[in-house]
Give the backbone structure.
Amino acid sequence: MGRLDDKVALITGGARGQGAAEAELFVADGATVVIADVLDDEGRATADRIGDACRYEHLDVTDEAGWGALVADIVEAHGRLDVLVNNAGIFRVQPLGETSLDDWNRMLAINQTGVFLGMRAVAPPMTAARSGSIINISSVAGLNGVGMAFTYSATKWAVRGMTKSAAQDLSRSGVRVNSVHPGYIDTDMLRELDPDRGNLERGVPLGRLATAAEVGEVVLFLASDESGYCTGHEFVVDGGLTA
């Protein structure tokens, strides 16, 4: 028996990295998973590697119509949608003084508006079923200010607040909403920031980076019925960075 037996999950940003690790863990624990991304070749390859219980669909999380069509397709194909993981996001090193309005709008569109559109799209089928779990991937940058990444930090604080508001809004319908706040995770995104990883590792009290699977295990817990009394809260996976 898996913790996610009979559940259907949608994971955005699932082509690689943390989203792909979450999809693999979900399927291993019994879920049927749709991974969505704009990286089509990588997304298809990830779904093929995970197996028949996982399929890939193209989704730009800033596309309102795309969200509606994908959620409708999942519900039609499977009769339900139990879990949404709003994992898609981008990161840029941009202090306040170096951030253009275009930079600001682009990151808000993906990191914040994409989360809003996702929650709004899945709310009708989840509230109709009076059951569901929405997991929004924020960051430790949504707990502490990050001067070198002004807009990224702003979006991750917004995700934290949106999570709490949505949890209040949807709780009476049986839908839970929580946020996950990773620290430094060993993914392609982080390697682009610090190729040798040493500088970041030295700043972590546990002395190492997290694996994507370690974050995925927390997301899996929130997707499962084991977290049935958890809503509106932050789950931190940061090796002690914010302790």
